[in-house]
Amino acid sequence: MNPDGLARATAPLVGEHDCAAFQSAGSSPTASVCRVQRASWRAWDGGVLLDIIADHFLYHMVRSIVGTALALQGDSDPARAMRDCLSSRDRARAGATAPAHGLCLEQVFYRQGVTG
Questions:
Q1: Which end of the chain is flanked by fewer CB atoms within 10 Å, N or C?
Q2: How many domains does the chain have?
Q3: What angle separates helix 3-10 from helix 78-88, to the nearest 10 degrees?
Q4: What CATH number did the domain enclosing 83 receive?
């Protein structure tokens, strides 16, 4: 595991991007532009943990991002490789979908005045 490579791979995700490259094939059509506010890795007892905050997520997006970051962590320029994947909008250019175990939704933020 290369924590620096993982951090460099996910840094380009921050901002507003078309994240179609990370959307699972066969999922329902939806707006694929997402605003990612944070995508950062931190040490954890079991290895490393990805904290990601966005205005919404596509089906399997986080699992695809993890798989892609793992695949790119050893690249000579993980950030460039992630930007290339992201801009391609092509799911085939992204890494494998990481397994669901260990995935945890910790908190949902709602805009003030928005209800159920």
A1: C
A2: 1
A3: 40
A4: 3.30.70.660
Residue showing tokens 């995700």: 13
Q: What letter represents residue 90's amino acid? A: D
Residue for token pair 């954890």: 44
For the stretch 60-73, pLDDT in tens is 999 999 999 999 99
Residue 89 included in any domain: yes
Q: How confident is the model at residue 95 (pLDDT cuts 50, 70, 90)?
A: very high
Whole-number Å distance between alpha carbons of 18 and 38: 16
Q: Which residues of 40-63 are buried (b: 16+ CB within 10 A; e: fewer)?
A: ebeeeeeeeebebebeebbebbbb
Residue 38 maps to a domain: yes
